[in-house]
Write the structure tokens for this entry.
Amino acid sequence: MSLTVGGSHMLLCRTAIRRGSTKKTLHTSASRMKAIENQSRRNNLKLLTGVGIFGFTAVVAANATFVTKTPELVAVKEEAETVETEKVEIEAVEAAAVDEETAVAEAAQIAAEKALAAETIAEEAEAVEAARMAAEEVAAAEAARIAAEEAAAAEAARMAAEEATAAEASRVAAEEAAAA
């Protein structure tokens, strides 16, 4: 039931009322959607073709272009590099010679220090041995003195015992004589 006045317009209004919106969408049909997809594919193909052609052109241009230097500048630069290389080699040899001399001097100094240390250790060992021997002699002398004192004490005890025995014998003899 559409109105005849502006029939197509009225039909559109009726459709909009049924949908609940008067706003038209961008994609109104499947055929339009297919056309948009086809257009997108064509654009992607154009982009890929452009990138391929640019890459090919860049490679060809790089291979076809030669960068040359002035021969005089090249010769001067090579000579300067040769001179610089020779200077570096000479400095390296001199540094190695100085390092070798320094190493020899340090080795000699270390050897002298080791010899001095060995000498000092030997002297200290001799002093320790002499002190040990002196201590042994002192200990032996002390042992001999103690042994002599003990022998003298034993002799004095023996003599005292003999005197006591003689005194006892004379006392017993005196008692016997008095009793007789």
User: Anything to note?
Assistant: Helices lie at 7-19, 30-64, 71-179. The chain has a mean pLDDT of 82. Residues 71-179 form the longest helix (109 residues).
